[in-house]
Write a structure and sequence with these properties.
Chain A: It is an enzyme of class 3 (hydrolase). Chain A: InterPro entries: CheB_C, Sig_transdc_resp-reg_Me-estase. Chain A: This is protein-glutamate methylesterase. The complex is a heterodimer of chains A (194) and B (277). Chain A is α/β, with parallel strands linked by helices and 194 residues long. Chain A is built from seven helices and nine strands, in the order H-E-H-E-H-E-E-E-E-H-E-H-E-H-E-H. A seven-stranded parallel sheet of chain A has the order 3-4-2-1-7-8-9, with helices on both faces. Chain A starts with 6 loop residues before the first helix and ends with a helix. Chain A has a single domain, classed as Methylesterase CheB, C-terminal domain (Rossmann fold), CATH 3.40.50.180. By secondary structure, chain B is an alpha/beta fold. The longest helix of chain B is centred in the N-terminal third of the chain and has 21 residues. Chain B is globular. Classes of the chains: A alpha/beta (194), B alpha/beta (277). Chains A and B meet through strand 5, strand 6 and helix 4 of A and helix 2 of B.
Chain lengths: 194, 277
Amino acid sequence: MKPSLDWQHDIDAIVVGASAGGVTALRELLGALPADFRPPMLIVLHLPRHRPSTIAEVLGAYCALPVYEACDKQRIERGSVMFAPPDYHMLVEDEASVALSLDEPVLFSRPAIDPLFSSAAAVFSNRLLAILLTGASTDGSNGLAAVRRAGGTAWVQAPEDATASMMPAAALAYAGAEAVLTLEEICQRMRNRA
Amino acid sequence: MRDQEAELRDLEIRLLLEAVYLRYHYDFRDYATASLRRRMTQAMMKFGCARISDLQHRLLHEPALFSQMLQYFTVQVSEMFRDPGYFLALRQHVIPVLRTYPSIKLWVAGCSSGEEVWSLAILLHEEGLLERSLIYATDINTEALKAAAGGRFDVANVAGYSKNYQASGGKASLGDYYTSAYDGVIFDRSLKKNIVFADHSLSTDSVFSEVQLVSCRNVLIYFNRALQDRAVGLFRDALVRGGFLGLGNKESLQFGTHADAFEPVVREQRIYRKIAP
């Protein structure tokens, strides 16, 4: 168990996955990030595939950091939040950039959480924090397992605290986690960076 | 700090790509790493290999396996009129310029199974330009090229294509262009009279013609920056001055070395125009 993290030194990036109920949860999470928060945050929220998304603008209004939707080979900037665009998977290409892909949807979703988490694990290994939030899907289970295999840290929203419990419950059963937390506890850790 | 297992796997991937290049002359060495890792892992499972080295061994000794793997690596199933806004922008901003040329050459680079080529042919036909157009549809995958030339698509997808077509400013009904055949639809042969399907690699081949439009959508996302620069360099060299380049709607020239050679025409649809000589 790693109950606390030294943010300045241990974490180079944070990946977040959310599905049903995710907009509300992410609004709280992004709202909790202090303006001097350094690790870049990469997010997959399951989205309708065939229309442009306004999620980055909408949630950007609640966040002290710049929030934007990724383009291919977009640079990963410290102190920023990046969303996967609709109908593309977002992968971590290297420590400095993401890559998009039109590979098959995973569990009917594109973007999907597994490709983001797995690709981030391959690049950041033990310097990665993965957070899996509410959702009615089993996406994220494989990705979370990959994160933990690579030595990264997994936080999962407590199923009873989630709007939709299936995704966190499935991931806990399949991959386990370093911590099972309520959304408020996750937000608190962000605020305290502890 | 990366763990040793991850380092080893990346080393094995590099060796496999080198082996594939030497044995089959397909060059994936500058493909984007994250996607390659993902597909290699899937290929290992699919072909029952415990390690990437085992997969490499089999690929070297079994050409049939390589051709299966090639499908796996390169075939991107697209949609006809994917991102209707792109095709609408072509109609509104590019067609009027193309119309001024006595003969028009277009290049669909990385055409895969052909959805975009056929869409473009329909668009040109409706604009009255197909007769004096020549479309080069290129890909590295000869099986995909064969499928593209067949112009046969799964009937399950046609409703979605029709919706895209209408949203793209289509002037008729998509149904006017195909006939049903079992569980598929086959597009009108006359549309492909002026399409040349050809084997061409953006990694290893050079420019083969001067063109007024290059459409290369969601191909560059699979390349690393160096290979993206090579490909965009080919497009720049192939395009006439003032010629158009269309990319996928999450692809951008801004991170590459040729950004200065182009200016945006319809920025949100990723349609650019060559400004440099």
